[in-house]
Amino acid sequence: MEDLVLSIPIQDKALVETLAQRMGWTMRNRRTSVERFIRSAEGRSQGDNSCLKYSELLEKLK
Prior knowledge:
This protein is mainly α. It has helices at residues 13-23, 30-41, 54-61. The model has no long low-confidence stretch (mean pLDDT 78).
């Protein structure tokens, strides 16, 4: 599988989601991808001050 990033008009989102579902593709939006990255990095820090906590990063994304 290959990852591909698309920028589409919001009004076409439902169409692309339907196509992806019918083709068996996996879709993620940018926020979901960032949240998955943050979750995967939890627990790997080398001390309390080395990086922001997951909840702090989510607040910054808002």
